[in-house]
Amino acid sequence: MLEDTSLTPQEVANKLKIAKNTVYELIKRGELNGYKVGKKIRIDLKDVEEYKNRTKQIKIKNTEINQNTPSKFIKTSSLLLEDIYSNDGFIICGQDMLLDILSRYLELHPNGVHALRSYTGSYNGLLALYQGNVQVATSHLWDGDSNQYNIPYVRRLVPGIPTVIIHLACRMQGFYVAKGNPKNIKTWEDLKKPNIIIINREKGCGTRILLDEQLRKLNIDRYKIKGYNKEVFSHLAVASSVARGSADVGLGNEKTSLQVQNIDFIPLQNERYELVIKKEDLNKPSFKAIIDIVRSKEFKTELLGIGGYVITETGNIIAEL
User: Fold this and answer.
1) 3-state secondary structure of 12
2) Where is the PBP domain (predicted)?
3) Is 250 helix (H, G, I), strand (E, B) or coil?
4) 199 and 263 in one domain?
5) CA distances from 236 to 198, 264, 300 (A)
6) What is the CATH number of the domain that holds 86?
7) What's the rounded Cα separation, in Å, for the pair 92 and 309?
8) pLDDT of 24-82, one tens digit each?
9) Exposure winner among 32, 186, 312, 317, fewest CB in 10 A?
10) Are residues 213 and 67 part of one domain?
11) Are residues 261 and 195 located together in one domain of the fold?
């Protein structure tokens, strides 16, 4: 049966006739479900078949520009293939889909650029910003000691470089559980129950750090939690694992729970999702375009239409470090 067949990344690459690194990138972006067994990544054959079926009809079209995109953000009436694939090395780091929206607006803005996306977790994204490998990082990292988001981590991971933190949105994080919550999982303490199996996120993402910080504060030995070492690479993969019965609980945002059948969402913590930019870049046209977009009515309206975001502070400068 398809669901009983587990493949290595190289085997998936051979089936799809793509590079193995592309398989890893698809997993990071949440387009292909993957999970860890020990230190090895595995992909179920049925997920590969589902990915193939989803992508059969994908075509590049000029009409992919959102019809509601305001004219002030459009710098040309059409997109040519060479425009789509050319780039100046401008990279936005982060995994949330609102960054796809931001990238689209940025490409169409008169002072914008074609931005590449790096689907890397918050911790590694800040390191990449410090090392000069990306231009914009995003973060939703919670510090359990100060009960503060992002600022403590930016100070530690981007030391000696003046930075600006710009608020994007608030999102609700919580547990994905089976429909009806048959194991009555409601709090962090419930993860200690011996009959609970979790599905985890990869090290370095904000969701994983939230879990680890909560376990640390409650003095819960994470290695005694069944499933702790099994990792997947997106909210969608976590929710899918719970829906299929591979795990009893996983941590993710509320928006994704609405996309997956047969699960319930248990809200736990409101988190802050924010942009981090080097202060020296603020007056450059592309970065000014980002701030213009994030503060625009059109961008905020699109986030509201998707749902799952609180935008009361969107565009505000939260800190200058």
Assistant:
1) helix
2) 105-294
3) strand
4) yes
5) 15, 14, 23
6) 3.40.190.10
7) 20
8) 778 876 778 888 777 788 888 888 888 777 665 444 333 344 445 554 554 433 333 33
9) 312
10) no
11) yes
On whether both 35 and 165 belong to a single domain, the answer is: no
Structure token digits, residue 317: 């400068």
Strands (E), the chain: 6-7, 35-37, 40-44, 91-93, 116-118, 136-139, 142-143, 148-149, 163-178, 198-201, 231-232, 249-253, 263-278, 317-320
Tokens of 43: 């992909």
Quick one: which of 42, 310, 273 has its CA closest to 150?
273
The structure tokens 């994704």 sit at: 256
Q: What is the mean pLDDT of residues 165-181?
A: 98
Range of the domain at 8: 2-55
- Residue 222, both tokens: 């994470």
Q: How far is CA 126 from CA 93, 206, 209, 276, in A?
A: 9, 11, 14, 8
Place of tokens 């999982």: 185
Pairing of strands 116-118, 91-93: parallel
Q: Tokens at residue 254, please?
A: 């509320």
91 and 239 belong to one structural domain: no
Same domain, 157 and 277: yes
Q: For all residues of the chain together, what is the average pLDDT?
A: 87
Helices 98-108, 285-294: crossing angle, 10 deg rounding? 130
Matching residue, tokens 């510090």: 143
Q: Which of 229, 254, 270 is the C-terminal boundary of a domain?
A: 270
Written as one letter, the residue type at 138 is T
Asked whether residue 263 falls in the same domain as residue 184, the answer is: yes
H and E: helices and strands count for the chain? 12, 14
Angstrom distance (rounded) from CA 96 to CA 121: 10
pLDDT computed for residue 73 by the predictor: 53
